[in-house]
Amino acid sequence: MRRRGPDFRRPVRRRISNVVWWTLCGIVVLFFIFVLSKESQIESRPTIARRSERLDKIMEGLNITDEMLNADSVTRQLTDQISLAKAFVVIAKESNNLQFAWELSAQIRNSQALLSNAATRRTPLSTRESETAIRDMALLLFQAQQLHYDSATMIMRLKAKIQALEEQMSSVSEKSSKYGQIAAEEVPKSLYCLGVRLTTEWFGNLNLQRKLKERKQMEATLKDNSLYHFCVFSDNILATSVVVNSTALNSKNPEKVVFHLVTDEINYSAMKAWFAINSFRGVTVVVQKFEDFKWLNASYVPVLKQLQDSETQSYYFSGSGGDGRTPIKFRNPKYLSMLNHLRFYIPEVFPALKKVVFLDDDVVVRNDLSALFSIDLNGNVNGAVETCMETFHRYHKYLNYSHPLIRSHFDPDACGWAFGMNVFDLVEWRKRNVTGIYHYWQEKNVDRTLWKLGTLPPGLLTFYGLTEPLNPSWHVLGLGYTNVDPQLIEKGAVLHFNGNSKPWLKIGMEKYKPLWEKYVDYTHPLLQQCNFH
């Protein structure tokens, strides 16, 4: 074979240069590893220090000493024995073995005395001084095991005990709910007395009737839309008086405030007498009874139609209809009260008015409310404070979303809002036929499958997409059933005692009662005669 010439031969590879290159790479890698390890050591030192500080704080908070963490600690052994013995005492008593329970309790006290003495002198227990106590407790614990007070038995008995306690708690809770509901629904004797005395005063004092007739000559005032019109629907004279009085005292222009009160036939004379006897800084007050509204009949109002239904009457008044497991609060007749549902007929009640502020009778007004009448509702009908800061107040908590009609029309996560302080644009209400929407949903709920109780669920349906959110400070809720942030109360324009614990009842929340009682004149002769205090 012919060999290539020298010029055409492949060059010989330089192995030495490759070795040098790999050596340099190795040195660089080792240098980086060294630098990184130094940094991690520096960083780990404060981390370890912080962890040590945290452990020290935990030990200090739990009152744990180094001696107790020692594997050979006598103190820890005694503590463990005491914990186990306490559990055996419970089981022994359950088994009616009182003698053994007494022996265990006596030994527990002995061991606790030893630990207490050691803690007082600030020195750990020695094996010598605790040997007897540990041995005696060990014998009792062994005896407990011989009596089948083992872990499995303890677990089974404790489970049975927990189940029995849960059943007992459920029974007590149900009774408490029933008694609380009864207490909330009962009319206090003092309120009943006030109603009777005022009715007597009305029919026996012609001057009161004459005075009220003089006020009725101000018909133009009742229809003047440049004034501030408020409405309250209630059969509670004193509560309504607090609403009117608190509004008057905190109003910048009380002479521009007009209160439209609607009550029932029973309380009509008493309500007229009270507001004829008392004056409220020039505030105009007019009293009506819903029985005088000619348009309010069963052919037009679904609620009145339901009241005539025997099954509905049985459900709400006797509590015997439907599902026997339905809670008592769902069977309250007040949910079919016309005064409760009259809020859905405000345009019919006040045909000449364009805007009103609706107030419940369990509120207290703390600021001037005239600014509510200038709020732009952006074409909506209802101005209300939203209550969906928590998931509890979303639509799905009030409505039955297993029903296809609810599921197809309403967002389950839509924000709920509250009745009690609402601004209603009656012009938009009439234009959108909101009362007709309310009638539609009431008729669909004859069998109570869309919602169970109250006026809020039908309100959420009726004003869906027609509600303008207001600043939360306008309406602060919860003073009748829960603790409320003091800062919210301080800023609140209207405080709402919603819930069973109304401030005029004995079951009212004591810390919030002064907010309401501030507007009650307990020196009034009629209140003193009826033992209000």
TrEMBL record:
Q: What is its EC number?
A: 2.4.1.-
GO CC, sorted alphabetically, is:
Golgi membrane
What membrane topology was assigned to this protein in its record? Single-pass type II membrane protein
One biological-process term from Gene Ontology?
A: cell wall organization
Q: Any transmembrane segments, and where?
A: 20-37
* Molecular function via GO: polygalacturonate 4-alpha-galacturonosyltransferase activity
Where does the record say this protein resides?
Golgi apparatus membrane
Q: Which UniProt keywords apply?
A: Cell wall biogenesis/degradation, Glycosyltransferase, Golgi apparatus, Membrane, Transferase, Transmembrane, Transmembrane helix
Domain of life the protein comes from: Eukaryota
Ligase is among the record's keywords: no
Q: Pathway involvement?
A: Glycan metabolism; pectin biosynthesis
A Pfam family of this chain: Glyco_transf_8
The record's similarity note reads: Belongs to the glycosyltransferase 8 family.
What is the name of the protein in this document? Hexosyltransferase
